[in-house]
Amino acid sequence: PARVVVVGAGMAGVQTAVALREQGFAGSVTLIGAEPHQPYDRPPLSKAILLGTAEGSAFDVDFEALAIEIRLGCEALGVRPGDHVLETSAGAVPYDVLVLATGAGPVRLPGTEGIPGVHLLRTLDDAARLRPVLARQHEVVVVGAGWIGAEFATAAREAGCAVTVVEAADRPLAGALPAEVAAPMSDWYAEAGAVLRTHARVARVEPGAIVLDDGTRVPAGAVVVGIGARPATAWLTGSGIGLGAHGEVLADAGLRTSAPDVYAVGDCASFPSGRYGERLLVHHWDNALQGPRTVAANIVGAATGEAPEVYDPVPYFWSEQFGRFIQYAGHHPAADTTLWRGDPSGPAWTVCWLHEDRLVALLAVGRPRDLAQGRRLIAAGTRMDPRLLTDPARPLKAA
Ligand code: FAD
């Protein structure tokens, strides 16, 4: 192909453009992004950037040297796959190959649109709006005890804010982790001086407070909503490109969409995992790093008639919350056995999930070596000895 157009200038889009060059693609590469800023990395937004210990997180990529044309402040509005044309706020853009990398957008709390003092945390602009909130040491209410809520609460406590986290479920990270694993994490909030209210649903937000459905009023100088994210794909409606139940682009094992010459990668797309036997929609950084290499390989390979490379990663992510470094690898729903290494009330422990004695996932709190060793064992599908596994003093290794 002569012209590759990548929509979305986040991690996945930038990595796709870079990987194309790394893999020797010599045609034109155009990267289109809705945000006005130089492409930047998102994880620091809820960490160093929020606390003001880092000013920015722009990717260290020399686009000019790589002959990658970037068009910022340009929003994709639709695509006509039959004509190989992308419609944007700056006009029509023809392509030979199109890569969808529009990421995800945060879910809003119903009825809070336009209410001052209600924040989301997804973009650099969101983080810039939240920095003065932390500096003023407001009483903040965080809605949602997920990854973003926990990281924001951590930063807000460090900045000296009074923090209340309200969570509709009975525990933090209810959507991500089983109850027995998330339960010990509830204590982290109190330890950090934050109040965690579970079974707490927000009925409405008023100026200066939120009101829960049991009538409780919680004072709030600012409200930060972290209740999840959805693929940013509304603009694809009517394009004929297949979307799934969460609005995600349905990619195949080679990250191709249902439309010819259109690929999808990162937070906006799901793919069939051969490893786990189900379709995965991953909203984590490592997926936006690894997926693009497959996309680039398949764009380059399609031209020479090579069989498409299959994307079948062991998912990985990390989170930094309440002074802890949490890492997760794999996908635990397929597990038949859960084993602990170390005491979950202590500072460092690991949970291992096995399926028929093979490690399928692991969550490590303050045990990066477990993660590194476990990730390899998961990838290799190695058979483990469950009795040896539970001794935290032994390295994680095959039976
Ligand atoms: P995005 O980063 O969302 O980038 C997509 C880009 O496309 C955006 O810039 C968007 O403006 C643009 N776009 C959207 N629609 C259009 C359109 N129609 N036209 C043009 N452009 C468009 N993951 C971890 O593993 N560990 C962490 O600690 C971690 N921390 C995080 C902290 C925060 C605050 C956030 C928000 C996310 C964090 N993540 C973390 C998740 C990680 O950042 C994402 O998985 C990753 O950014 C996904 O990359 P992406 O390129 O697919 O999507």
Automatic annotation (TrEMBL):
Which residue numbers delimit the Reductase C-terminal domain? 316-399
| Boundaries of every FAD/NAD(P)-binding domain copy | 3-288
Cofactor(s) recorded for this entry are:
FAD
Matches recorded under Pfam families: Pyr_redox_2 (PF07992), Reductase_C (PF14759)
* Superkingdom classification of source: Bacteria
Q: Which InterPro entries match?
A: FAD-oxidoreductase/Apoptosis, FAD/NAD-bd_sf, FAD/NAD-binding_dom, FAD/NAD-linked_Rdtase_dimer_sf, Reductase_C
Q: Has keyword Flavoprotein?
A: yes
The alphabetized UniProt keywords are: FAD, Flavoprotein, Oxidoreductase
Task: Kindly give the SUPFAM superfamilies that the UniProt entry links to this protein.
Answer: FAD/NAD(P)-binding domain (SSF51905), FAD/NAD-linked reductases, dimerisation (C-terminal) domain (SSF55424)
User: Mind telling me which Gene3D superfamilies this protein's record contains?
Assistant: 3.30.390.30, FAD/NAD(P)-binding domain
From the Swiss-Prot or TrEMBL record, give the protein name: FAD-dependent oxidoreductase
Q: Which organism is it from?
A: Streptomyces ziwulingensis
Upper lineage: Bacteria, Bacillati, Actinomycetota, Actinomycetes, Kitasatosporales
